[in-house]
Amino acid sequence: MLQSALLAPSKLKFWEVLVWGAAFVLPWLLPQKALMINEIAIVALFAMSLDLILGYTGIVSLGHAAFFGFGSYSAALFAKWVMPDPLVGLVVAMALSALLGAVASVTIWRGTDLTRLMVTLGTALILLELANKLDWLTGGTDGLQGVVLGPLLGRFDFDLMGQVAAWYSIAVGLVLFVFMRHWVNSPFGATLKAIRDNRLRAMAIGISVNSRLTLIYTLAAAIAGAAGALLSQTTGFASLDVLAFDRSADVMLMLVIGGVGWLYGGIVGAVVFKLLQDSLASITPQYWMFWIGLILVLLMLVGRERLLKPWTWLGARP
Fold first, then answer.
1. What is the C-alpha separation between 58 and 201, in angstroms, rounded?
2. DSSP calls for 84-130
3. Taking the CB of residue 169, how many other CB atoms lie within 10 A of it?
4. Burial tier of 8 (Cβ tally within 10 Å: 0-12, 13-18, 19+)
5. What is the pTM of this model?
6. Which segment of 2-16, 65-79, 104-118, 150-164 scores lowest on mean pLDDT?
7. How many angstroms separate the Cα of 308 from the Cα of each of 40, 45, 52, 143, 314?
8. Domain spans of the chain?
């Protein structure tokens, strides 16, 4: 009974089916915006991966771009030097990012939130410097160019409009969303929330805290690596930007907008942030960050719960 109660929220509701169905229809209805839709789908997946460790486990991170960038370069190098199949490259990038996450998880076992902020940021900066110095492999400041992918599923070529890329990113995002939803609503997810709320109490009732932290950090790294792989595969390019601090800061802002501890928070935050960025940058190219900062201040003053109240009517939890 307990397990079925925990798993019940993992089933997609009717309104969610409509939302995801609309996401798949958008590249067809708005072909001129397909590239933007593809980018939103990628950063939404990236934001959800951060929410796994921040919202559900309480691990603060300012270096989540390390896994995003590692997955991006892994997929690009695999396509360029080994095999151009996008799905195989995606799996390889996820596996390598998961391995990096497993190794890096040792650094978050102990310490305060401030310590983890510095350690995670340092991990990303180390990878950024390595990518910059190993220019014979990564292209350095010029980026890794000439990444050409084969047809998706052997049939669908990536078009210049970006429609196939958008459908590809949305499909991968949906599959991984379903898996994440299952994880966070399972008994495993309940132990993560216990660790988030009180680590000492979780240890006292017999939860293996370090093993849970390692596992969720590895899973989050794999999903962030998938988002990075999608970016390099759909753009045919990987640069130092994927490892930059701005990438980690932006995804943190998305969760501030959409809310943590709620997978749809990453999606809502990604949509709002990217649309604001696109519209404000076209109006005031030099000061768009000022307006986003002002909107964030107003959001904190008004309260996210009031703005997202319609989602609660649909059965969501912002």
1. 14
2. --HHHHHHHHHHHHHHHHHHHGGGGSSS-HHHHHHHHHHHHHHHHHH
3. 28
4. exposed
5. 0.88
6. 2-16
7. 19, 20, 21, 39, 11
8. 2-244
